[in-house]
Design brief:
This protein is an alpha+beta fold and about 190 residues long. It has 2 domains: about 5-65; about 75-175, ACT domain (Alpha-Beta Plaits), CATH 3.30.70.260. The chain is about 25% helix and about 35% strand. It contains 3 helices and 9 strands. The protein has helices spanning about 50-65, 95-110, 140-150, and strands spanning about 5-10, 15-25, 30-35, 40-45, 80-85, 120-125, 130-135, 160-165, 175. A hairpin with a 7-residue loop joins strand 8 and strand 9 (about 175). Helix 2 (about 95-110) packs across helix 3. It starts with a strand and ends in a 10-residue tail after the last strand. About 25% of the residues are buried.
Length: about 190
């Protein structure tokens, strides 16, 4: 069994919280990850003797989320946040592909453990590495991406971040740029 259930809820103060669950078949554990969006989450793991128990655990998790008024955020209500790194060559080199793998891995972890979304895809072209992330909160995702790029020793001076509503992927607005007044192109 594979898959993840990812749910969100705003509390009375408007703070966005998240809960997610999945089965880690490598460690044979049912994992629940939860917290305030944008902050390091807490994780609880439960050993599972057989995979048939997983469906029951996932169903119970989904039912508890529904009872607690947590729900999935449809993609149409989320945002594309693109982390763009300038490259030295138009089509990229093997070194750039290594950079792509390193950046994707780091951003996947940074966003996931803070309930900030997922890395959807990446592409190299036109002297740029673009990493497309689907996120429920633009500002917190932008901050997390900046922290991640610095922390991973990626070249922060070459980082541009832009965001657009999922429903209008052509409406990117720059959220961070090393140069003022420069436009954003993919």
């Amino acid at each position: 069994m594979s898959g993840i259930i990812r749910t969100y809820k705003r509390d009375d103060d408007g703070v966005l919280h998240f809960r997610e669950a999945w089965y880690d078949d490598e460690d044979q554990q049912f994992v629940v990850n939860h917290g305030v969006v944008g902050h390091q989450s807490r994780t609880d793991e439960t050993a599972v003797d057989n995979e048939t128990s997983v469906e029951g655990l996932m169903a119970a998790f989904a039912a508890q989320c529904e009872e607690d008024r947590y729900a999935e955020i449809p993609e149409s209500e989320q945002f594309w946040v693109v982390a763009q790194l300038a490259l030295k060559t138009k089509e990229g080199t093997e070194r750039d592909r290594h950079l792509e793998r390193k950046a994707k891995t780091a951003l996947t972890a940074e966003l996931a453990w803070r309930g900030l979304g997922v890395v959807d895809r990446s592409e190299i072209g036109n002297s740029r590495l673009n990493i497309f992330c689907l996120c429920p909160d633009v500002n917190k995702a932008v901050n997390a991406i900046k922290i991640c790029v610095r922390g991973e020793d990626l070249d922060f001076t070459k980082l541009t971040i832009a965001a657009a509503p999922h429903s209008d992927p052509t409406a990117f607005k720059i959220k961070h740029s090393p140069k003022q007044g420069v436009g954003f192109t993919l």
